[in-house]
Design brief:
Length: 97
């Protein structure tokens, strides 16, 4: 994940406006150069990177990190990091070193 995000710098970032989304955005912003941060409606994102926002309604995002259900039949060109734990823990798993 680090290498993928490093290649996108500086990148635009969408995140959910709950504790998990805000914490996750803080993690990425402390490591990477984020040029824009937005808080869109759930599933309504069009930035380079999306955190904690569910499945995309458009196929423009390059990296998605999410824990919500509904990914079984999603067709996207994005690099998706999905797990059942909160998004902040997914980021920790991939970026802890």
């Amino acid at each position: 994940m680090y290498e993928v995000l490093k290649q996108l710098e500086p990148f635009s970032l969408s995140t959910h406006n709950d504790a998990d989304g805000i914490y996750s955005a803080a993690i990425l912003s402390s490591i990477f150069n984020v040029k824009e941060l937005v808080f869109p409606e759930f599933n309504e994102y069009e930035t380079d990177v999306a955190l904690d926002l569910g499945t995309p309604n458009k196929n423009v995002t390059k990296v998605i990190v999410d824990h919500h259900p509904g990914w079984e039949n999603v067709n996207t060109n994005a690099k998706v990091y999905h797990d059942i734990v909160p998004t902040g823990l997914i980021l920790y798993k991939y970026l802890k070193e």
